[in-house]
Amino acid sequence: MYFKCGQTRDARMIYDELPTIDLVSWTVMIVGYTQARQPNDGLRLFADEIRSDLLPNSVTAASVLSACSVSGNLNLGMSVHGLGIKIGLEECVVKNALIDMYAKCHTISDAYAIFHGVLEKDVITWNSMISGYAQNGSAYDALRLFNQMRLYFLAPDVITLVSTLSACATLGAV
């Protein structure tokens, strides 16, 4: 609630008064800071989490990767990627966050490598890559991927359509 109202300081005070801080507490705070456009504060909490010897789960890793996307912190994102591999965080939510992070940090080839390695792609996986291509000026690749998605009979959602229209606009093909 405090994050939605822009009162990050109040949220932090409540967090600091918790008798025990668990993985859920860390994750909620990281997400809150990221959504409040203060991803570096969330990333500092993640560093505290790691120093406390608490390993992230897939939701925490995806949240940290999202903070890296917003802040443009490619180096930390790559470190989280390596940690995820080391501790076995292979869930789709982590891979989707990796695709988004690499695309937003303008390393589209790394985003595609992750995308290509996902065996069971969901609509979020496709959206992350289509959007990544569109945001990085690779409109033809975005449209190619959109057509490929349709061949797999996966129904596009609003995000898919917005990303595809963005690619079309880049090409002047609206």
Automatic annotation (TrEMBL):
<keyword id="KW-0472">Membrane</keyword>
<dbReference type="InterPro" id="IPR046960">
    <property type="entry name" value="PPR_At4g14850-like_plant"/>
</dbReference>
<dbReference type="Pfam" id="PF13041">
    <property type="entry name" value="PPR_2"/>
</dbReference>
<dbReference type="InterPro" id="IPR002885">
    <property type="entry name" value="PPR_rpt"/>
</dbReference>
<dbReference type="InterPro" id="IPR011990">
    <property type="entry name" value="TPR-like_helical_dom_sf"/>
</dbReference>
<dbReference type="Pfam" id="PF01535">
    <property type="entry name" value="PPR"/>
</dbReference>
<keyword id="KW-0812">Transmembrane</keyword>
<protein>
    <recommendedName>
        <fullName>Pentatricopeptide repeat-containing protein</fullName>
    </recommendedName>
</protein>
<feature type="repeat" description="PPR">
    <location>
        <begin position="122"/>
        <end position="156"/>
    </location>
</feature>
<dbReference type="GO" id="GO:0003723">
    <property type="term" value="F:RNA binding"/>
</dbReference>
<keyword id="KW-1133">Transmembrane helix</keyword>
<keyword id="KW-0677">Repeat</keyword>
<dbReference type="GO" id="GO:0009451">
    <property type="term" value="P:RNA modification"/>
</dbReference>
<feature type="transmembrane region" description="Helical">
    <location>
        <begin position="151"/>
        <end position="173"/>
    </location>
</feature>
<feature type="repeat" description="PPR">
    <location>
        <begin position="22"/>
        <end position="56"/>
    </location>
</feature>
